[in-house]
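Researcher: Here's my situation. A collaborator sent me these components and asked whether they could plausibly form a single complex. I don't have experimental data yet, so a predicted model of the whole assembly would be a useful starting point for our discussion.
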Amino acid sequence: MRRSMAALAKTVLKDDGHVVRRVAIVGGTHGNERNGIFAARHLLKDTKRASRSTFETTVDLANPAAIAVNRRYVDEDMNRCFSREMLGRKATSREARRAEVLDQALGPKAAEERRMDLVIDLHNTTSDCGYALMMRRDDALSHALCATLQKQYEDVRCCEWDDKPDHATLPSCGRSGFTLEVGPVPQGVADAVTYQKTLELIDSILDAVEARNQALLSQKSSVTLEPLEVYRRVDHVDFPRDDDHVVAGLIAPEVIDFKPLEPGQPLLLGLDGECVKTHGESDLTPFFVNEAAYYEKGVAFVLAEVAEVGVEVVS
Amino acid sequence: MRRSMAALAKTVLKDDGHVVRRVAIVGGTHGNERNGIFAARHLLKDTKRASRSTFETTVDLANPAAIAVNRRYVDEDMNRCFSREMLGRKATSREARRAEVLDQALGPKAAEERRMDLVIDLHNTTSDCGYALMMRRDDALSHALCATLQKQYEDVRCCEWDDKPDHATLPSCGRSGFTLEVGPVPQGVADAVTYQKTLELIDSILDAVEARNQALLSQKSSVTLEPLEVYRRVDHVDFPRDDDHVVAGLIAPEVIDFKPLEPGQPLLLGLDGECVKTHGESDLTPFFVNEAAYYEKGVAFVLAEVAEVGVEVVS
């Protein structure tokens, strides 16, 4: 492997040279996010579409019980069941039991070697996030795939999860993996334009994995270092709430996904329309603005630091 | 009352000269439609906002059990519980029992005289319907209020329910009444801009009722006949479904709320993106396109005939 790399004063995510042998595409981790459910159903039927010569692709629906009733979850949020801590407990909910099964198929996290080299978990969100890949901060392959996608699609963004050692999301079971969030899409709804674009993005991701594999297998691969803008989750803001903790306010219209906050701009409004919280700082950027499922989690929007990292891309 | 009326070759909805004494504003008939829930909560707190000199306004939340769990309903859709047939049965579900209580407060439908002269039921929809008032075909007051609103707001539309003798919706309990649909708003979400506009529309509706009352009470009222474009619900189209009746397709992007269908345009797509149904006729117009709650009801979108009616407006 030949490396051409300028010295850059930033984080560099180094490609590990590992050929991707198994990719998992998963829909329906949340049972009311139809975009990913429909995409997974299509790929289960049209098996050729997700096939490539150098790796095996499996497609699955994560939470059939929740899909059947068109709800995010039946007992508890499955996408919070994949931490080592949760997987180490005796599972009591339907989602936790199903998470154990999926962890065996994708990971398992407890093992050094993971069954899946790459896990793509298909979600949708009511926030106006466009197409956002959400990943671990140290996941070099996922970052490189995102950098490759950005050359084709200007509305694709890279988001990084919290800096925690033990993530609880489904794609964290794989060696690499990310959540593909698309929005705005209401819960329970699929939109044809967003759906078609999601399938296109999946095609492009699988093509990029295939191209990297081919390069690595050819013994003539080269590595370039490419800049990638990342939105690094650092905090969140809750809704205004009344004395019974019931949501009693709204997100100010000026708070827009991936638009940096201005000093002093309104963040939250009361039901009477009065501003109840203004923002004093200017160095943070919101995303997941008004995601329906986050009302119960106490998140009106997430706050991110914007950073540039260097990503090794193999070709 | 002085009437100035040109002879028009169309339906004329005559004002009955009845002073409005009681108005009910209701939110949360569907527990995950936060826009109306938030508006009702605000009006319950700011009681002056919905007060006018000539009538009494009551504000209520229709389905607190569904609101508490952020779902459309707990046992069954409450907005299908208000038919005479349903109200005549022994109520077995939580929604049907609550519908009986509400029917006593708003109607009752079984009585000749109704307690409420006007019922405004606040909903939101994932469809891109803008601001649409949904009403009985013979409800002169609601049509007149819609005609008045359209002078102030160009994105307000009048829709008419099916031509059935026994409607099952909450506002059908009142002497007059309509559903105020606003969209697109995802389930479980409130959007500040839509919310503020909803409150403005409510203000304007109450102002229009007050002005009509004042005119009638002054004994110097006049009546003008005004044209109103109405979308008359006549049919609907279901999603493509697989052998197990599971939704297996999408609404074509060309199907847009209140945009007349073109002959031969695609209506529905399969999950592979292929057109599975084209439309041969051109005289119908869709609305409620991709309303999340209608997947279970077998409605991808509603089809309407567009008609012009004459509405008597008192001033």
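Model: Some features of this prediction you could bring to your collaborator: Residues 7-221 of chain A form a domain with the Aminopeptidase fold (CATH 3.40.630.10). The two ends of chain A are 10 Å apart (CA to CA).
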